[in-house]
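Quick illustration, no need to memorize.
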Amino acid sequence: MKNNLRKPLKAALHVCGLIITLLYSSCTKDEAPNPPLNYARGFWVVNEGPFGSGTGALTWIARDGSRVEQDVFGRVNQRPLGNIAQSMQGQGNQGLIAVNNAGKLEWVNLQTMISEGTLQGLALPSAVAVDAVRGKAYVSEWVSFGGNGRISVIDLVSRLKVKEIPVGPFPDALLLTGSQLWVANGDSNFVSVVDANADTVMANLVVGDRPNSLVAWQNNVVVLCGGRPSWAGVETAGSVHLLSKNSLQGLASNSFVFPGQHPKDMVLMPAGNAVLYQLEANQNTGLHRLDLPWPNASVNPGTPLIPRVFYHIAWDPYGDRSLVATDAGNFVQAGKCYRFNSQWQILDSFATGIAPGHVFFVP
């Protein structure tokens, strides 16, 4: 009797199980998959990563501070970005990341951060400038420590190197303004000016020791030089220079008062009437302002706007135009990124990867 009851019970349970399975399957088929994350209205922090080992990484920070993601490139592409991630630029949906020790340029989709290819064979690439008008990008290559560097011209369609332009030692900062590419040769006392139409050097202009920052102002270029540090020989003071884009001649030149004053990281104020720069010195270390045009006298910085030096600073050209500063800390552990308002007060801060440096902003 028990066996006779057990058979119809098993059949009923089987039917119920089948119905539940079908209902579950129909429900899951109707559910839409999670949409891919879109990287807009925010900025990328390029984390260099540990020197000589490990990998660089990208941190994404939404402009409203609601979303922070670490190592986005590695997570999306299931491989490391490479050592050392130096800088990032873009045009439209196309992004270019210079990876220094790895000797490559990584192409990415800026909306999804999916890799779209790699250009290998670069010699210690550093900065990138995108010339959308002429359909090319310029990449500064150190080539070697102690020797002259070069600028590589990259076609944005084929994504191949089409030309190399010899410049001075340790070319780092780039400024594309009109039909001219200005190059700060960081281990020299001159900047190179490249004709962006012919991709040839128009002039090498003498400035101070170790130029490190370039800013376009009106029809001129402001060049900030850090000066030679004590560990590199006879210490020299920093200096700032105003050069004409038309005549390619110097209009003004001022040195900092003391040899131990080494300025770096110059950026133009949003109003266009002054520059900000960071000063490393025995006194008055921190962030300073210099009005444009400056008086014809030696530069003697007073009390800093922010009494500390960051690894890198940049203005966010969108939103409320806040100042973004990265702090690399000890270059071994995760760093930080800060945002400041116009009164130089901290708005917020975010964790980053190791050695956060260059910042790239997205509308």
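The CA atoms of residues 96 and 173 lie 16 Å apart.
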